[in-house]
């Protein structure tokens, strides 16, 4: 399930979906134990969905309104551009002195 789909759900629907996903995860664990599970990626996806749903639920409890395309959040390219624009001090090169045995 995509995050925008999760955010569109009501709180009650979200709680029901979390319970359904926990039930599905339990079912996947039983299938895995009996070697009947064919799609191992479903376990990972279900865990991710549960985590996303719990995150959205917690955001609602705290009263946070997070938009997916919020302009105040810097993108990765904005951060790397600002870091690269700052001049870094150059490292001093040291010359290894030759000892008498190396000559």
Structure keywords:
Helix Hairpins; 59% helix; 103 residues; mainly alpha; single chain; elongated
Topology:
Elements: H1 3-8, H2 11-33, H3 41-62, H4 76-85
Provide an overview of this structure.
This protein has 103 residues and is an all-alpha fold. It has a domain at 1-61: Orthogonal Bundle (Helix Hairpins), CATH 1.10.287. Helices cover 59% and strands 0% of the residues. It is built from 4 helices and no strands. The protein has helices at residues 3-8, 11-33, 41-62, 76-85. The longest helix has 23 residues, at 11-33. It is elongated.
Helix content: 55-70%
Name the structural class: mainly alpha
Q: Per CATH, what is the topology of the domain at 1-61?
A: Helix Hairpins
Radius of gyration: 26 Å
Mean pLDDT score: 82
How much strand? under 5%
CATH architecture of the domain at 1-61: Orthogonal Bundle
Q: Give the N-to-C terminal Cα separation.
A: 70 Å
Number of DSSP E strands: 0
Give the low-confidence spans: none
Brief characterization of the structure:
Helix content is 59%, strand content 0%. By secondary structure, the chain is an all-alpha fold.
